[in-house]
Write a structure and sequence with these properties.
This protein is of the alpha/beta class and about 280 residues long. The chain has twelve helices and ten strands.
Amino acid sequence: MKQFRLNRLFNARSKRCFDVAIDHGFFNERGFLGGIENLETCVKTLVTAAPDAIQLTIGQAPLLQSLPGKEKPALVLRTDVANVYGKDLPDHLFSRMISQPVEQGLRLDAACIVVNLFRIPGEPEVTDQCIQNILNVKPDCDRYGMPLMIEPLVFKPNAEAGGYMVDGDLEKILPLVRQAVELGADIIKADPTDDPGVYRQVIEIAGRIPVLVRGGGRVSDMEILKRTFDLIQQGAAGIVYGRNVIQHKDPSGMTRALMAIVHDGATPEAAAKLIRA
């Protein structure tokens, strides 16, 4: 039964997925709200651009699901909230799961639910909470046929990076991705490596589980297009980008450009022509 929902998430022609993440307001960080201040407008813009999925929270998912018609993107439902992203971290860090996440996902007609698996230097208790969240939700995902996307995130030390910064060290990413697979992920949403040319090792360590690559922080158009092209060439099953789409001057054009790379194998140069100058 999970396959029925996965069929809505992955493009029938390319068997890949482009999920636009706009769930950033869940995390109580002012800097995360750029481009999504008016989320209703943002959702409508993205729906017009037609990515495969849009990632939202329980409070904002109705903005997508209440739109009429059957052609809109699938819903990926964010199910955990955390306070680990700030430049100045509080004394107590947490990652909390919403109540009855699978039932709420079913009521919202989600194609998938997503939960974090953090690796934060010096904060093992947050990893413990993430693992407990996954262990608690996995049986219900299997019982009700809800695909489980696990998001293994490797952080740089906060004192070094000055806030939420992805550590693209392959040696740290590999074991966390494998742990997510061992915990029962149906989809992996993983960090990009510093060197996109070694990403095939991440794909290999995930085995039969498709890997979608996170976008990370905002970068130039050609950088994100070239990185996406390289990652798809390495075997990634798709991408989950947020800020590189929603903070762009032309989010619809950037969406179309990325879709051309993910689904049609377009070169970065050809894809760039779909973005308004």
